[in-house]
Design a protein that fits this description.
Layout lengths: L2 H8 L17 H19 L15 H10 L2 E6 L5 E3 L4 E3 L5 E6 L42 E5 L4 H6 L10 H7 L15 H5 L1 E5 L13 H18 L3 E5 L1 H11 L15 E8 L12 E7 L11 H20 L8 E4 L8
Parallel strand pairs: 5-6, 5-7, 7-9, 8-10
Antiparallel strand pairs: 1-4, 2-3, 8-9
GO biological process, one term: base-excision repair, AP site formation
GO molecular function, one term: pyrimidine-specific mismatch base pair DNA N-glycosylase activity
InterPro entries: MUG/TDG (IPR015637), Uracil-DNA_glycosylase-like (IPR005122), Uracil-DNA_glycosylase-like_sf (IPR036895)
C-alpha cells in the first residue's frame, strides 16, 4: 500500500477506480473516474490549508523566533523502524520501511540560573525620638494576679495613632488570642481595656516610645526597659508573663541570667517557657495567691514575621493556655527554672 493510499484511507476517501489500475487509451469513462478521484482528494486536502483572510503573507511570530533562538532548538532526524508507528487523531498510520520524519527537540532549560528580582527590604535603622514625638504611648492594661500579662516590644506607629494595642490590621494577636482559647470571642483592638476584667489578661510593652518598627529603637532603650518591666511584674504578680517576640525574651534573659551565674544564659531564647522564674517573698500580712511568675515566649504576631504563620502562633499560645490550669493550681513542675528573687528588683510605686 502506497503512502497516497494510506492518506486517502485516513481522510475517508473511497477508491472509486475499482480494478482499473491504468486507464487504457480511449477509455473516457475510466479517465473521468480517475480525474474525479484526484479532484475529490485535492478538495479535501485544501480544506486543511490555512487561508489568510486579509490577503497578507503569513510570517513567523518574532516572539517564537526569539524563543527558538534562546532555547537553541535543534532539528533532529529520527529513523523509524518498521515496527514503529505514528498516531494521529483519527487512526494509526504504518510507515514504509526507510521513511524518516523530522521532529523538533527543545533543549532543556534546567541548567539556566533564575534571577531573583525581589529585593530584600532594608531595615530602617535607629530613629530619633523627635520623629515620632507627635505620637503618645499606650496605656497598660493591668490588674493584680492576672492569668497572663502579654508584653510587646513597643507600640507600633499605627497602634499609637489609634490608641490601642496591636491595632494594625495585619497583626495576628487578637485572632490568635481567640483561636487559642484565651477569649471566647474575637476582641476588637478598641476593646483592649476590657481584657483584665473579662478574661484576667493584661497588656504592656518593654519600651513606651512608639516607632514604625523595632529596628528604630536603640539597644540601650530596650536594655533600660527591662528593670522597669520586671518591677511592673513584681508589683502585679501575674501567673505568667508572655513575651510577644523573641527579642524581648533575649533582653530579659540577659538581665535575669548573667553569664557569670548561669551556663544556660549563653543559649538563644527559645519558644515556650523560659529557663527562669520570678519568685516572691511571702512576708506580707495578706499572703497573695501567686508565689512565682513564669515566663513564656511566642514569635512576634506581626504579619511581617513570615517564618511563623498565624496557625503556628496560635498553636504556641494554645500550649500555654492548656497548661494554665496546672500553673494556677501549683501542680506545674517548674523546679528546673532558675529562681530570680523579686526582692532584688526595685518595685515602682
Amino acid at each position: 500500500m502506497s503512502i497516497d493510499e494510506q492518506i486517502m484511507g485516513i481522510l475517508g476517501i473511497e477508491d472509486t477506480t475499482g480494478s482499473v489500475d491504468t486507464p487504457t487509451p480511449g477509455d473516457e469513462a475510466s479517465l473521468s473516474v480517475a480525474a474525479s478521484s484526484v479532484s475529490t482528494f485535492q478538495s479535501v486536502v485544501s480544506g486543511f490549508a490555512f487561508a489568510s483572510t486579509d490577503g497578507k503573507t503569513l510570517r513567523r511570530s518574532s516572539r517564537l523566533i526569539k524563543r527558538a533562538t534562546n532555547c537553541k532548538v535543534e532539528n533532529t532526524a529520527v529513523e523509524l523502524s518498521e515496527e514503529k508507528t505514528t498516531k494521529s487523531s483519527a487512526s494509526a498510520v504504518e510507515l514504509e520501511p526507510g521513511t524518516s520524519i523530522k521532529i523538533r527537540k527543545r533543549k532543556s532549560l534546567t541548567g539556566l540560573t533564575r534571577i531573583n528580582s525581589t529585593k530584600k527590604k532594608q531595615k530602617r535603622g535607629y530613629a530619633d525620638p523627635e520623629k515620632y514625638a507627635h505620637l503618645n504611648g499606650l496605656r497598660d492594661v493591668l490588674g493584680m494576679e492576672l492569668d497572663v500579662l502579654f508584653c510587646g516590644i513597643n507600640p507600633g506607629e499605627y497602634s499609637a495613632t489609634v490608641g490601642h494595642h496591636f491595632a494594625n490590621p495585619t497583626n495576628h494577636f487578637w485572632r490568635c488570642l481567640h483561636a487559642s482559647g484565651f477569649t471566647d470571642e474575637l476582641i476588637s483592638p478598641s476593646e483592649d481595656y476590657t481584657l483584665a476584667d473579662r478574661f484576667s489578661l493584661g497588656l504592656t510593652n518593654l519600651v513606651d516610645r512608639p516607632t514604625a518598627g523595632q529596628d528604630e529603637l536603640s539597644n540601650g532603650e530596650q536594655t533600660a526597659g527591662v528593670p522597669s518591666l520586671l518591677s511592673k511584674v513584681a508589683r502585679h504578680r501575674p501567673y505568667v508573663m508572655c513575651f510577644i517576640g523573641l527579642g524581648i525574651a533575649k533582653m530579659v534573659k540577659t538581665y535575669c541570667l548573667p553569664r557569670r551565674n548561669s551556663s544556660v544564659s549563653q543559649a538563644s531564647p527559645s519558644i515556650g517557657f523560659q529557663p527562669y522564674k520570678l519568685v516572691y517573698d511571702n512576708d506580707q500580712k495578706d499572703v497573695p495567691r501567686v508565689k512565682q511568675t513564669l515566663f513564656y515566649a511566642v514569635p512576634s504576631t506581626s504579619g511581617r514575621v513570615v517564618q511563623f504563620q498565624r496557625d503556628d502562633k496560635t498553636k504556641i499560645l494554645k500550649d500555654l493556655r492548656d497548661k494554665l490550669a496546672d500553673i494556677k493550681s501549683g501542680s506545674f513542675d517548674s523546679s528546673a527554672f532558675h529562681p530570680v528573687s523579686a526582692s532584688l528588683i526595685q518595685v515602682s510605686a
